[in-house]
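DM from R.C. (forwarded with permission)

"hey, sorry to bug you on a friday — could you get me a structure for this? deadline for the figure draft is monday and I only need the backbone to look sensible"
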Amino acid sequence: MSKLRLTLLGSFEARTDSGLSLAIPRRKAQMLLAYLATHPKQTHLRDKLATLLWDDAPAEQARLSLRQTLFAIRQMLPLDPMLVDGDGVAFAADAVTVDVTEFEQVARSHDPDELERAAALYQGDLL
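My reply, with the result:
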């Protein structure tokens, strides 16, 4: 299965595992993709996601914006890592690697090589 590679430390970047850069121009789409990818296998209610990203919009408009953003993400990606089930949205954990997750894992190590890898992964603050 092809994987999506997300870089969130420093700036947003999405790539396929073959290295192809993916354009995700909309900021809310980047934020939603980052949020879902950093919480893999966890199902998020649509209402919660809509409120999280469009808290200043009426509930109906926020849900419409979420629907449109989920559709846009699916159109931009060569694979579909999202699992949508009724009112829930989740991200397939085996479909993505995220630099933040890798950084957190290797930064806990006492191995100098792993700490060097953590330093290389850190390109700046989260998004």
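R.C.: lifesaver. The first helix runs from residue 27 to 38.
me: no worries. The helical segments are 27-38, 46-53, 59-76, 99-107, 112-121.
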